[in-house]
Write a structure and sequence with these properties.
Keywords (chain A): Aminotransferase, Oxidoreductase, Pyridoxal phosphate, Transferase
Shape of chain B: globular
Helix content of chain A: 25-40%
Shape of chain A: globular
CATH topology of the largest domain in chain A: Aspartate Aminotransferase, domain 2
Order of helices and strands of chain A: HHHHEHEHEEEHEHEHEHEEEHEHHEEHHH
Helix content of chain B: 25-40%
Structural class of chain A: alpha/beta
Number of helices of chain B: 14
Oligomer: heterodimer
Strand order of the largest sheet of chain A: 1-9-8-7-6-2-3
Number of strands of chain A: 14
InterPro entries (chain A): GDC-P_C, GDC-P_N, GDC_P, PyrdxlP-dep_Trfase, PyrdxlP-dep_Trfase_major, PyrdxlP-dep_Trfase_small
Strand content of chain A: 5-15%
Order of helices and strands of chain B: HHEHHHEHEHEHEHEHEEEEHHEEHEEEH
CATH class of the largest domain in chain A: Alpha Beta
Number of domains of chain A: 3
Radius of gyration of chain A: 25 Å
Structural class of chain B: alpha/beta
Number of domains of chain B: 2
Largest sheet of chain A: 7 strands, mixed
CATH architecture of the largest domain in chain B: 3-Layer(aba) Sandwich
Number of strands of chain B: 15
GO cellular component, one term (chain A): glycine cleavage complex
GO molecular function, one term (chain A): transaminase activity
CATH superfamily of the largest domain in chain B: Type I PLP-dependent aspartate aminotransferase-like (Major domain)
Largest interface: A-B, 204 and 209 residues
Largest sheet of chain B: 7 strands, mixed
CATH topology of the largest domain in chain B: Aspartate Aminotransferase, domain 2
Cofactor (chain A): pyridoxal 5'-phosphate
Chain lengths: 480, 444
């Protein structure tokens, strides 16, 4: 399909009718750009058709089952979009509350923030939350910065952060970017082994980053022992909350002893992924870490008014220009109000039910390396199929032909030919069964006609794309 | 129960297939000592009830004010087509395009976005966006540190103070030195910045127009930086880039921008869009998603995420950054916005904004005691000196339904009387007239 730049016709006008005076009347010509920008000249209908056609070359949850392990692609109700699009929120300028006396003009927004923080504290058992981080990985970085500030304040000399091999790839990256050395711990039988952890623990460990359930979909049942071990060396325990969908109402990380947690509001509490963002990654902390949270903090005064407080001398400062991705926070707030206590618990229970149902039905057709009760996702392996030359990637592509987005493949790295499946709570049983049947039929085809699977996909706008060429030729814009 | 489709019979069938008696059995590994101490969340509400509550909260926010607030975040008109197209479920509910054959829409849109923003900023390469303009600036700084293996960063005080505070936070645990070169009555100190360059300098960071609205040409500074082996980084205002000399024309190595003004509502601070562009030479240092054009096995054109070996899911602690998502939907909004306005439309929006700001400056400085703070060229935002504290004036005018601008004393000591005033194409001549009269009244 042509790019919008290819279809441009010089002189064709878009949707801006008013003409201002020439910039030369106001700005010296040596400060002005030479020549055109190179944006398309197209009518509004040209633009509408172009992007409508582009959208038709995409899979989205509204049209396709998206069982992406580690990503929680559940259905997001539409009413949260209405809530977030209210002009009372969208037209609010973010520096307004920084003006003297103008905090009173955004009480509604501040109340949303305060209420959401209280709800997230109750859901996780943490003492305080900041909504500032703009994505899960941004929350991780904030969390590691909080660790650093805590240890610095205590005069601790800490240089290392422990990350299990079953963790998300962002965990070690976040720790490294914040200035720490990363120490990896190997899982034993799919989970963190306290003995293996004890072997790498020393006074230089600032903290440990854990994902629970981990990326194998398994519950880390040794958490109490892990917490005890870390306390002994004054190391903090960080919870990667990307998989919170598996434990809402069943476990609160604060109660278990975690010191810091980030949540992916967009995964657990509903914001569509938008092709990769925006998300929102609030961070919760235990009481001893509260003084270090980013500023501003929203506080409720005795008279019921809300107020942005910047006066926290030990704060790590600004991690975002304002209050995080407020529009995403709004959707999470609306979603939590809608589901309520029972709804959140029910979401978790059904996410776990669906994952175990699929695991059980697939166990005769695919190797399942840790085949026991899983949480909201599980990892299968195409190692058996790979013997005939059909790899996890081929199975993924064959699923696309059948109208399903593929599961996450080759992640986690610790399982060969991994296929990571997360059905979520919102898919009905017919869809789960049809998807399982599709996977089984691909496994059968792999045994009889591997080449047919390797040739997939054949029904989409393009077939297998040459990724090596893309990296080598580096055609990154229409001009380069 | 909302959004969970299973009937009781279906749940029973699924439990039987798993071989457990109840849903509770699925959580048996969570021992008693790990069970929640409480889970005191209010009971759920209907969709209608939730929306009524949110509408009531939205109603507590004053959005009926006439506003001259900018400070890096601007209320430009957004064509209706932007919402209509970006809300399409196929875009809106899609994931990061890891399966390119099923995501050609998202991928081609990102490729077109990369093309549009590199053309706007006169640069060679772009990523598919980071969180916001401030984190883009921080990521640019880190690109420079990786590239040069040096530790000194020169920062202009004309850079948005909100971003300067962010940079301080992000680098506090790293072995880097931030050197701030003060502004000169709101003008960027080009000579001071040039003099601060040395052989230990990783990057020099400037903004155009600067926080006070002043427009500069950084060509000489960037040439001096390059001669010293330092990386020239500029933060630009994308709407005005339709008119202004581009970062590329000035010789910048990395150009970033807050993309909010390209089709994103102000939305109380987010989600926004961090635009990041660079020269081809810097591409392997750039974090985040990048889309490349290629062909499929039948020779048809297609698009994929590329240069992924820099990323955290492959390189873990050796990745160029920890960024895992992008602001893809925001980038799509910016692209559709630029396409809907088109070449001419974006220029006209910029021109009108500049014209209104100059009219506003003329009217305000006609008031006795009010003078321009910066003396040089400006675009759609400018700073004035008031005869009194700007906070007081703002408080008085805000009560009357006018938000006159941003008080420079909030971040700059000694500029307590400074007021930063922004206009866009949405600002009417009539509003400017009323504003000037009200300010005259307050100062009388």
């Amino acid at each position: 399909m042509k790019t919008i730049f290819d279809t441009s016709v010089a002189g064709r006008e878009g949707c801006w009718p008013c003409e201002g005076k020439s910039e030369e009347a106001f700005i010296p010509s040596d400060l002005l750009r030479r020549g055109d920008i190179g944006l398309p000249s197209a009518s509004e209908l040209d633009v509408v058709r172009h992007f409508t056609r582009l959208s038709q070359r995409n899979f989205g949850v509204d049209g396709n089952f998206y069982p992406l392990g580690s990503c929680t692609m559940k259905y997001n109700p539409k009413f949260t979009e209405v809530a977030a699009a209210l002009p009372g929120f969208t037209r609010l300028h973010p520096v307004l509350p920084q003006l003297q006396g103008a905090g009173g003009q955004c009480q509604g927004a501040l109340e949303v923030m305060h209420e959401t923080e209280r709800l997230l504290c109750e859901i996780t058992g943490m003492h305080a939350f900041t909504l500032h981080p703009m994505a899960g990985a941004h929350g991780e970085l904030t969390g590691v910065m909080l660790m650093a500030a805590y240890h610095k304040d205590k005069g601790n000399r800490k240089t290392k952060i422990i990350v299990p091999d079953s963790a998300h790839g962002t965990n070690p990256a976040s720790a490294a970017i914040a200035g720490y050395t990363v120490v990896s711990v190997e899982s034993v039988d799919g989970i963190v082994d306290p003995a293996a952890l004890a072997a790498v623990l020393d006074d230089e460990v600032a903290g440990m980053m854990m994902t629970c359930p981990n990326t194998l979909g398994l519950f880390e049942k040794n958490l109490p022992e892990i917490v005890r071990l870390l306390r002994e060396v004054d190391a903090l325990l960080y919870y990667d909350g990307a998989n919170l969908n598996a434990v809402m109402g069943k476990m609160r990380v604060g109660d278990v002893g975690f010191d810091i947690v980030h949540l992916n509001l967009h995964k657990t509490f509903a914001t569509p992924h938008g092709g990769g963002g925006p998300g929102s990654g609030p961070v919760g902390v235990c009481e001893k870490l509260e003084p270090f949270l980013p500023i501003s903090r929203v506080v409720k005064l005795e008279d019921g008014q809300f107020f942005l407080d910047y006066d926290y001398p030990k704060s790590i400062g600004y991690v975002a220009p304002f209050y995080g991705n407020f529009g995403v926070v709004l959707k999470a707030y609306a979603y939590i109000l809608r589901l309520g206590r029972a709804g959140l618990i029910r979401a978790t229970e059904n996410a776990v039910l669906a994952a175990n149902y699929m695991r059980k039905r697939l166990e005769k057709h695919f190797e399942i390396p840790f085949n026991r009760i899983c949480m909201h996702e599980f990892v299968a392996s195409a190692a058996e199929q790979a013997k005939t030359g059909v790899r996890a990637l081929d199975i993924a592509k064959a699923l696309l032909d059948k109208g399903y987005h593929a599961p996450t493949v080759y992640f986690p790295l610790i399982v060969p030919e991994s296929i990571m499946i997360e059905p979520t709570e919102t898919e009905n049983k017919e869809t789960l069964d049809q998807f399982i049947d599709a996977l089984i039929s691909i496994a059968e085809l792999a045994a009889t006609d591997p080449a047919a699977v390797q040739a997939a996909p054949r029904t989409l706008p393009v077939s297998r794309l040459d990724e090596t060429r893309a990296a080598r030729a580096m055609e990154l814009t229409d001009d380069l | 129960m909302p959004y969970v489709p299973h009937t009781e019979d279906e749940v029973r069938e699924m439990l039987a297939a798993i071989g457990v008696a109840s849903i509770g059995d699925l959580f048996a590994e969570i021992s008693a000592e790990m069970r929640p101490a409480s889970f005191d969340i209010p009971e759920g509400l209907s969709e209608m009830e939730v929306l009524a509550r949110l509408e009531a909260l939205a109603g507590k926010n004053a959005i009926d004010r006439t506003s001259f607030l900018g400070a890096g975040f601007y209320d430009h008109y957004i064509p209706a087509a932007v919402d209509a197209l970006t809300m399409r479920g196929e875009f809106y509910t899609a994931y990061t395009p890891y399966q390119p054959e099923a995501s050609q829409g998202t991928l081609q849109a990102i490729f077109e976005y990369q093309t549009a923003v590199t053309r706007l900023l006169g640069m060679e390469c772009a990523n598919a966006s980071v969180y916001d303009g401030g984190t883009a600036l921080y990521e640019a700084l880190m690109m420079a540190v990786r590239k040069t293996r040096r530790r000194k960063i020169i920062v202009s005080e004309g850079l948005n103070p909100i971003y300067r505070v962010m940079l301080g936070s992000y680098t506090s645990n790293l072995d880097l030195e931030l050197v701030t070169v003060p502004h000169l009555d709101g003008q960027t100190d080009l000579a001071g910045l040039t003099a601060a360059l040395d052989d230990d300098t990783a990057a020099v960071l400037v903004q155009n127009p600067n926080f006070f609205g002043a427009i500069n040409d950084f060509t000489d500074l960037f040439a001096a930086a390059r001669a010293r082996g330092a990386v020239a980084v500029i933060s630009a205002y994308p709407v005005l880039q339709a008119l202004l000399k581009t970062p590329g024309e000035m010789g910048a190595a990395v150009a970033v921008a807050e993309g909010q003004s390209l089709g994103l509502p102000l939305s109380f601070g987010g989600p926004y869009l961090g635009i990041m562009t660079c020269t081809k030479e810097m591409i392997r240092q750039m974090p985040g998603r990048i889309v490349g054009r290629t062909v499929d096995d039948e020779g048809r054109t297609g698009y994929v995420l590329t240069l992924q070996a820099r990323e955290q899911h492959i390189r873990r602690q050796k990745a160029t950054s920890n960024i895992c998502s992008n602001q893809s939907l925001c980038a799509l909004r910016a692209l559709v916005h630029m396409c809907a306005l088109g070449e001419l439309g974006l220029k006209r929006a910029a021109r009108l904004s500049v014209e209104r700001a100059h009219l506003c400056a003329e009217r305000l400085t006609a008031i006795p005691g009010v003078s321009m703070l910066t003396k040089g060229p400006f675009g759609n935002e400018f700073a004035v000196n008031l005869p009194v504290n700007a906070f007081t004036v703002i408080a008085r005018l805000t009560e009357r339904g006018f938000v006159p601008g941003f008080p420079l004393g909030r971040y700059y000591e000694g500029l307590e009387n400074g007021l930063l005033v922004a206009c866009t194409e949405k600002t009417s001549e009539e509003q400017i007239g009323i504003f000037a009269e009200m300010l005259r009244g307050v100062l009388r």
